[in-house]
Structure formats: C-alpha cells, structure tokens
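Work Package 4 report. The design task specified in the project plan requires that, given a folded chain encoded as structure tokens, an amino acid be chosen for each position. We show below one input record used in the internal validation round.
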C-alpha cells in the first residue's frame, strides 16, 4: 500500500536535490551569484541579480520555499533573494535558515551567521518606489549574528539589529534594535534586554 506521507517526502527530496543542483550550477555560472558549500534549497527559491550588483550566500544555509515537515506554520510564498539596482549587494553569512523569506536590496543588506527567519519574513533596504520623492533614498540594513526573526516580521530600511536579538512575530522593525534585546510590535519596540 502506498503511503501518501512517504510519497510527499520522496517528492520533496527529489525537488530539493534538483533545485540545489540548479542553483549551484546556474547560480554560480550564469547568474554570477556566489553560493557557499552545503546550502539546501527546499522548493523553488527565486534568485535575481541585477547587472553590476552582488549576491553572496555563505555556507550551510537553508531556503525553505514550500511547506514541509521543517516548517508547518504556513509558508505562503517562495524565498526570494534579489538585488534591484546596479551596485546593490546582499551578503548572507553562514548557517542561516529562511522560510518563505524575501530579501530585496537596492543598496546593501548584510545578514550575519546563525540567523533564523520565521515564515514569510521580509528584509528590505528601500521603500520600493524610487521614482516617488516621498519614499526617500534606500538605506542599508545590517542584521547581526544569532538573530531570530519571528513569523511575518518585516525589517525596513536603515535598520541595524544587534547580535542575539529576538524579534517577535508580526513585528515591523523601523528602528535599530540593540544586542541581546527581545523586541516586538508595530512599530517594533524593545521589551527587554537579556
């Protein structure tokens, strides 16, 4: 008798292998994206690099773009890692986990090591409407090491999040968060320093 769970598990393994190999081969050669060792792409992650921009992904990163046994909270989109302007850059450190995470850079986004991004998080350094004078210039985003971004969190332009910070679910981070802080809310506010 065929077990549906087993079939899903095998399907996921096959697609993971396919996308991982595709990103290593196409990503490095055609798209000129630097991908470290032992990265895993569960489901179809979207990678887009604007000409004259740079995307660097460290070692041992995992991108979960489809719901599976790794994240049952509900992923509603694939991971998207994209630069949108010449000279923009995205630097992703080592041993990070992303679930339906969108990272969009018009200037510079730097993500440290051992980051956990809950389902459907967004990290951006721009307001996305550069033609509108009210949106202002893009401003870099820096996220330190060992940071945890809760499900549906949004990190907006000009923000630095210190090492070991925890950002609560559904938070909108508009200002800097210090090291070792627990912060949450819309707008995100520091609740406690550990």
């Amino acid at each position: 008798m065929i077990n549906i769970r087993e079939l899903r598990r095998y399907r996921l393994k096959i697609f993971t292998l396919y996308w991982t190999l595709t990103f290593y081969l196409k990503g490095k050669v055609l798209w000129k994206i630097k991908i470290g060792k032992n990265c895993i792409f569960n489901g179809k992650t979207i990678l887009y690099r604007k000409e004259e921009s740079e995307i660097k992904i460290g070692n041992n990163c995992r991108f979960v773009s489809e719901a599976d046994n790794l994240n049952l909270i509900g992923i509603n989109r694939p991971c998207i890692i994209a630069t949108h302007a010449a000279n923009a850059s995205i630097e992703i450190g080592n041993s990070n986990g992303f679930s339906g995470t969108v990272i969009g850079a018009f200037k510079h986004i730097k993500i440290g090591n051992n980051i956990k991004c809950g389902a459907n998080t967004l990290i951006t350094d721009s307001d996305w409407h550069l033609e509108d004078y009210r949106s202002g210039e893009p401003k870099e985003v820096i996220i330190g090491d060992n940071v945890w971004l809760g499900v549906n969190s949004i990190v907006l332009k000009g923000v630095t999040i210190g090492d070991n910070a925890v950002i609560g679910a559904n938070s909108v981070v508009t200002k800097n968060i210090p090291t070792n802080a627990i912060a949450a809310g819309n707008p995100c506010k520091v609740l406690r320093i550990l």
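The longest strand covers residues 189-193. Validation will be extended to a larger panel in the next phase.
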